[in-house]
Design brief:
about 350 residues; alpha/beta; 2 domains; 31 strands
C-alpha cells in the first residue's frame, strides 16, 4: 500500500488568507495541516508516500524532508501546471505502479484518519473506496448520490446537488484507475475531474465503495474552517500534548489544558485559558488574556491584549487589542493607539501592519 498526498495548489479553491507560503503549511494547533495527513498515512501502515507538488511549493520540502520524522519514505513529484486532481494521478503513475494507494488532499483534516479506508479495501477488494460526509452546502464539493451500496450519480460542484454527501478528499484506488483517467476529457473548468474518474470506474466495474466517515471532517479551504479545525484538534488533544516548558512567573494564571513551549514567558497578571497551545519564545504580557481555543506560534508578543479562538502565527506582535475568531499571519504588527474595549474579528496576511 502506498500513499499519494496532493500539496502545493492543484485546483481552483480560494486561498484562506493572503499568505505568502503554501496553504497546506498553515498551522492547526501549531502543526502544519499537511503533517496531520502524513501521520494518518503512517498510522494506517503506509510507508512509501509521493507528494505531488503544484505551482506553490514554499515550505513543503523544507518542512517534510525525506519523511523520516513521520516514519515514512517520501518522494516528491512535480505536477507542473495544475490540471485537476485526476491529472495529478497520471503524474504519479510511475511512482505508484501496480500497488493500491491512498490519495489524500493535503488541506483535509479528518478525525478518524485513513485506517478505515484501508480496512474497507482489505474487506472488499474493490477498485476504489471514496470517503463521503454530509455537509450543509454541497455546491462547493464533489457530490455523490447513493441508494444503499449503489452510486446513482457523481457531480463536481453542482449548482443543484442531488444529495448532501460530499466527497471528503480522501480516496483509496487500485491501478485500475489509470486507464480510466487516461480516457477523461477536461471539464468546463479545464480540469481532469476526479469525480468523472470515479463515476467512469463505477460504470465500468461497479466496484466502488462509498465510506461514510465517522467523526468530524474539515476541508480547510476557508478561514472559518481553519478556526473550527483548530478548535476541534485542541479539544481532542490529551494531557501529554500539553507540555509546559516555559516560565510561568508568580502572579500569572493558567486555567485548563495549556501547552507552553521553551523560553515562553507568562508575565504576572497575564492569563492563559485552555485548551490553548503556545510555541517557543512567546511573551504574554501583564494584563493580557489568551484563550480558550488559541494556537499561538513561535516568537509572538502579546501586550495588553485579549485573544480568543484564534490562530496567531510566528513573530506576530499584538498590542492593546481584543481579537476573536481571527487569523493573524506571520510577522504581523497589530496595535491600538488607544485602549480597545470591544472584540474584533481580523484576517491578516503575512507582514501586515495595522494600527487601530
Amino acid at each position: 500500500m502506498k500513499g499519494l498526498v496532493l500539496a502545493g495548489g492543484h485546483g481552483t479553491r480560494l486561498r484562506p488568507l493572503t499568505y505568502t507560503g503554501n496553504k497546506h503549511m498553515l498551522p492547526i494547533a501549531n502543526q502544519p495541516i499537511l503533517f496531520y495527513g502524513l501521520r494518518h498515512l503512517a498510522q494506517a501502515g503506509v510507508r512509501d508516500v509521493g507528494i505531488i507538488l503544484g505551482p506553490i511549493q514554499e515550505g513543503i520540502r523544507e518542512g517534510v524532508g525525506d519523511g523520516g520524522a513521520f516514519g515514512l519514505h517520501i518522494e516528491y513529484i512535480n505536477q507542473g501546471e495544475p490540471k485537476g486532481l485526476a491529472h495529478a494521478l497520471l503524474c504519479a503513475e510511475q511512482f505508484l505502479g501496480s500497488d493500491p494507494f491512498v490519495m489524500y488532499l493535503g488541506d483535509n483534516l479528518l478525525q478518524a484518519g485513513v485506517r478505515p479506508f484501508v480496512d474497507r479495501y482489505e474487506e472488499t477488494h474493490v477498485d476504489a473506496v471514496v470517503g463521503a460526509a454530509p455537509v450543509s452546502d454541497a455546491r462547493h464539493f464533489g457530490v455523490v448520490e447513493v441508494s444503499g451500496d449503489r452510486i446513482l450519480s457523481l457531480e463536481e460542484k453542482p449548482a443543484a446537488p442531488k444529495s448532501n454527501l460530499a466527497l471528503i478528499g480522501v480516496y483509496l484506488f487500485t491501478s485500475s484507475i489509470f486507464p480510466i483517467v487516461r480516457g477523461l476529457v477536461p471539464s468546463k473548468r479545464g480540469e481532469l475531474e476526479i469525480t468523472d474518474a470515479i463515476w467512469n470506474l463505477w460504470s465500468k466495474s461497479g466496484k466502488v465503495s462509498v465510506l461514510r466517515v465517522d467523526g468530524w471532517w474539515k476541508d480547510t479551504g476557508h478561514p472559518d474552517d481553519l478556526l473550527e479545525a483548530n478548535e476541534l484538534v485542541l479539544k481532542g488533544m490529551t494531557a501529554p500534548d500539553f507540555r509546559n516548558e516555559g516560565n510561568i512567573l508568580p502572579g500569572a494564571k493558567l486555567e485548563g489544558p495549556v501547552g507552553i513551549g521553551p523560553r515562553t514567558v507568562i508575565e504576572p497578571g497575564a492569563e492563559v485559558i485552555g485548551p490553548s497551545i503556545l510555541g517557543s519564545d512567546v511573551r504574554v504580557g501583564t494584563g493580557s488574556r489568551v484563550g480558550p481555543y488559541c494556537a499561538i506560534g513561535n516568537a509572538v508578543s502579546v501586550r495588553g491584549s485579549q485573544i480568543r479562538r484564534s490562530i496567531v502565527m510566528d513573530r506576530a506582535r499584538i498590542d492593546g487589542v481584543r481579537i476573536v475568531d481571527s487569523l493573524v499571519g506571520r510577522n504581523v504588527e497589530l496595535r491600538a493607539k488607544h485602549p480597545f474595549h470591544e472584540d474584533i474579528v481580523l484576517m491578516l496576511g503575512d507582514s501586515s501592519k495595522v494600527t487601530l
